[in-house]
Each structure stands twice: as C-alpha cells, then as structure tokens.
Amino acid sequence: MDTPAQALPTVRDLVLSRADDDSLAMLFENEQHTYRDYTAGCVARAHLLLDRRGEGPFHVGALLDNGPEYSMLLGGAAVAGAAVVGINPTRQGAELARDITHADCGMIITESRHRELLVGLDLGAANGRVLDVDSPEWADALAPYADAEPPYTDIDPLAPYLLLFTSGTTGDPKAAICSQARLARIGEVINEMRKLTPEDVFYQAMPMFHSNALMAGWIPCLAAGGVGAFRRRFSASGFLPDVRRFGVTYFNYVGKPLTYILATPEQPDDAENSLRIVFGNEGAVHDLERFSRRFGVPVEDSYGSTEGGVSVSRTPDTPPNALGRADENVKILDPDTGEEAPLAEFDDTGKLLNPDEAIGELVSLVSAPTFEGYWNNPEADEERTHGGIYWSGDLAYRDAHGFVYFAGRNFDWLRVDGENFAAAPVERILVRHPDIDLAAVYAVPSPSVGDDVMAAVVRRPDAAFDPEGFAGFLAAQDDLGTKWTPRYVRWADSLPQTETNKILKRTLRRERWESRDETWVRDGQGYRRLASEDADAIRAEFDARGRLSVLDV
Predict the structure, then answer these.
(1) Which residues, in sequence order, are bridge partners of residue 165?
(2) Alpha-carbon distance 419 to 88, whole Å?
(3) Which is it for strands 330-333 and 277-281: parallel, antiparallel or unpaired?
(4) How high is the pLDDT of residue 376?
(5) Mean pLDDT to the nearest integer, 205-210
(6) CB count, 10 Å around CB of 339?
(7) Alpha carbons within 13 A on the beta-carbon side of 327
(8) CB–CB of 205/66 below 8 Å?
C-alpha cells in the first residue's frame, strides 16, 4: 500500500526537529553554530521568503558559495514550502539568464562576489528582486523574524523542493526536480548504508548548486544531526588541513577531487587524520585505491544520477574500470530498437571486441513512475521515460559476470570536473569565430576521470589555425562557461556526416585526437599543434592511471 503524501517525511520536519538541540551543527571558517541557532535562522528565512514572495511559482534562486547561508536558505525554503534553484556561478551571460528565467526564479539570493554576474541580465520575474546576504539590507530584512515561530504552511512532500540543473541530449540544461520527500528519504538511506551518526563531521566542499553536495553531503548531515564543516569552494591543498582542523570524518565527492588531492605533495603522516569514510561518484579506480592507501580511509565509489533513475553498486569483486553490479531491473538496451544489448566480449588483453553490439543505454525497467521530472520541459520528460522505461542517457556494456561498465555519455553532453553541460551552447559560441563555419563539440575521455572537451570544426576555405588568436577569441566570450574551453581542437575542411548532413559524433569520439586532420591541444592558456609524440604521451598517461580500456571503447 502506498504511503499517503501527508505521512511522508519532509526536510521541513528534519529542520524543525532540531529547534531545541544545542549540539554543534555548522563549522565555517571561524564561525560555529548550534542546531538551535540553525533552526532559528531557517525559520527567519522562511518568513522572509514568504513575505517577499511574488506572483508565479515559489522558486528562489541561490547564487551563493558554500556556507551557513546556503544551508539556512535550504532549510528556510523547506519550512516555507519554496523550491530552491541551484544557480551555477560558472555559467555566464545569456546562458546564466536563461537558467534563471527557465526555472521561473521569483527572487535570487546571492552575495557580493557573485552579484556582478547578474548585472545587465534580464532575470524575468526576479528583476529587481535580488538580495545580497553580506549586505546590511539582508541583516535588516531578517531582523523582524529573529524570534519568530515557524510559519504555518501546508507542505506538499511531493512538490518541487530543489531544481538542479543537469544536461541531456538537448542543447540547454534541464532543471531536474527533487521533492522534500525524496531528499529526506535519500538522507535516511545514505545514513543507513554508510552508518553515519550525530558524531560524524561532514565535510561540505562540493558546490552546493550540485546534486552530489546536497544528496550525498548536506541532507545526510541534517538527517543524522551531524556537524557540517563548510568550505566556500573545494581546495586540494586545503583538504587535509581542513580535515584536521574540523575533525572531519565523512567526505563526499564527485568527479576529480580525489585526483587533485593526490596531486598534492605526499607526506609521511597523511594517514594521521580523523577520516572514517569517503563516498562519491565517478572517481578513477586507480585514484580510489591510492587515496585509500595514502589517507588510511575506505573509499566507496558508486554510480547514480541527479534524477535517481538508475543505480549501480560497487562490490569488493568489481573488476577495474567497472561500475559494479545492478539489480535485475537495470538493463542495457539499444536505444533505437529497445532490444537488450548482447554481453560484452573481450580479448586476452581485456579489449572490448564488440562495442557496436554490446554498448547500449543504461536503463531501469521499474523507476520511470518514480521519476519526478524536469521543470517546464515535457519533451525531456518523455525522452527520459518513454515506453515506461527510465533511460539514463548514459552508455554502458555488461560482461558475462553481470558487471556493468560505463562507456560514456550521450554525445551531446559532457561532464568535466564533476559538472554537466550540453555541447550545443559551446558550439554556438565557436561558430562566432570568423574562420569557423561549423562546430561539433563532444566528450573524449580524460586520463584521470570524466571527460575532456574536444571540438571538431569546419574551417572557412584556406583559413589557418591561429593558436593565439583562437585563445584570445575564447577569452573574450562572456558566456563561455569556465569548464567549456576545448582541450582539443580538430581543424578540418570537412567532418564525417550522415546522408542527412548530421555530424557523426560517434565517429569523431572514436577518432579523438588521432585523426588525420590537423589537431591542436591546449597548453596552459594557449594552443599548440599536437604531434605524434604527444599522442603517445597521452596514451601513456591513461596507461599509468589504469584507464587504457576507456580508449578501446
């Protein structure tokens, strides 16, 4: 029997349950806050949001660094029944304005260091409704609610609570919906699986506009009644000093943070720390083992998505470069036919012999009904759940023992340093260049983890690549996201196409930087021509990290 919506747990319940708790809740720079302080701060912000609410959806944009303000805004929105829209500060110009207006933000909470990003933009319903948390006006606005009781609000546990931008096969990012009930349940599950308690100190260093920070870090901390140790932005060199200073026991990550930390100089006492568990997504296998050994802490890496449709769990016998095993409802299907892909076949070296047949889309046969959808994007909802199946958008293959291997993402989107973004906005920027007629942007494997950006361009007749001029052109594009700069540029007269003139990105991705066309690689802030010895060096880097197999897919 389904649980009535009114009986489902909510984030509001978790926040208000701490109202009389004098245990430590947050550490940030030189600040300390108890749960009593935290709940009072959330209630004050709930009243402020309700009093400042405008017409339209009750959506509040958060353009903030990590810290107590972000955490209290999340809690205040839960108490008020608002939805928080995580705004990515690496987005700029028209792309940033599009995110804000697409998500129907009625107001934006920001800080002085990010306020300039909004200058001159049309923010839709949020025009003239921007508040800075480090301004005197913010303190004055909160003052009337300092000792207020929680507002009475009729909370729908299944209504949108978070709008988290992710990317799919369409050009613009999609705002994935997460309800209070779902997020509260995620906190319960992670705490149960990872044995997290009020004694744990949760290191909150991943960007809080991202699902990993909220689902693997913030909500487990709140649900457990643990201590959140916040850092504005992740720093590899600051990691271990922070762990020791705050007594961190739990660290969540997504993407390359382990790689960056391991790149810092090793010290003989690195394992002398308070860490008890490290949990995250998309860490390189080679780095998981090295990190665990160097810092004396188990690292548990898993596969999951913002939308929550498919999960794969790593087991102790999981082979190198495999994601792990999934339950019987997770399949790998041919996205064109809907048929299940055959099992992968390997040669004696472990090379995949049948990629065209074995690689398909990772799906779930049962999770489509629980998918909470994307805000204002029925086409993306249909793409994700057509035929009663949840389609992850990720490519994979499965071996004869049931282990699932990640084979990349749909070719129209990329993931760099743990951040998703679509190819189309980057392509639109590149074709502004006077010497470029056509651009195709796609993911190629990174030697460490995740993707690197590669752009294949059709040049104007007889145009020569100007490395300094191209770098200068990119630097002048105000709407080029900080992760979007191509690492590789394929400078060509033509690109492989279908009969209907669609660029064959699958072919481009397989050829990578090893095509016959002139290819350039980013070196520092500029570009240089990629030579044969460079390709050998890149391959050697993959080999050193135990990731040669991803070059065979």
Answers:
(1) 175
(2) 10
(3) unpaired
(4) 96
(5) 94
(6) 10
(7) 8
(8) yes
Report whether pLDDT(169) > 70: no
- Residue of 515, 510, 550, 542 whose CA lies nearest to 530: 515
Q: Which string of b and e fits 342-364 if b means at least 16 CB within 10 Å?
A: eebeeeeeeebeebeebbbbbbb
Instruction: Report the candidate in 12, 23, 2 with the shortest Cα–Cα distance to residue 49.
Output: 12
If phi > 0 it is left, if psi is from -120 to 50 it is alpha, else beta; for residue 433 that is beta
Number of Cβ atoms within 10 Å of the Cβ of 281: 19
Work out the pLDDT band at 406, boundaries 50, 70, 90.
confident
**Which amino acid appears at position 116 of this protein?**
E
* Single-letter amino acid, residue 432: R
Q: Is 530 helix (H, G, I), strand (E, B) or coil?
A: coil
Q: What pLDDT does 171 receive?
A: 58
Q: What is the bridge-based pairing of β-strands 322-325 and 299-302?
A: unpaired
Contacting residues for 168 by C-beta, under 8 A, at least 6 apart: 174, 380, 383, 384, 393, 410, 412, 413, 422
- The Cα–Cα gap between 342 and 325 comes to 16
What SS3 class is residue 240? Answer: helix
Determine the Cα angle at 24 with ends 300 and 7, to 5°: 70
DSSP 302-366: EB--TT----BB--TTPPTTEEEE--TTEEEE-TTT-PBPPPP-B-TT--BS-HHHH-EEEEESS
- Residues 6+ away with beta carbon under 8 Å from 406: 303, 323, 394, 395, 396
Query: What is the C-alpha separation between 223 and 437, in angstroms, rounded?
Result: 53
Q: Is 382 exposed, middle or buried (0-12, 13-18, 19+ CB in 10 A)?
A: exposed
Residue 547 pLDDT > 90: no
DSSP per position, 193-238: HHT--TT-EEEE-S-TTSHHIIIIIIHHHHHHT-EEEE-SS--HHH
One-letter identity of residue 217: G
- Ranking 324-333, 353-362, 370-379, 464-473 by mean pLDDT, the lowest is 353-362
Cβ 411 vs Cβ 474: under 8 Å = no
Nearest alpha-carbon partner for 187 in 206, 207, 214:
214
- With residue 93 as reference, give the H or E element that holds it: helix 93-102
Q: Which residues pair with 201 in a beta bridge?
A: 227
3-state secondary structure of 267: coil
- Report the candidate in 22, 160, 13 with the shortest Cα–Cα distance to residue 84: 160
What beta strand segments (E) does 373-450 contain?
A: 390-398, 403-409, 413-416, 419-422, 436-445
Closest CA to 156 of 33, 265, 12, 28: 12
Distance CA 374, CA 384 (A): 10
pLDDT tens profile 218-275: 999 999 999 999 999 999 999 999 999 999 999 999 877 898 899 899 999 999 999 9
pLDDT tens, position by position, 36-74: 999 999 999 999 999 999 999 999 999 999 999 999 999
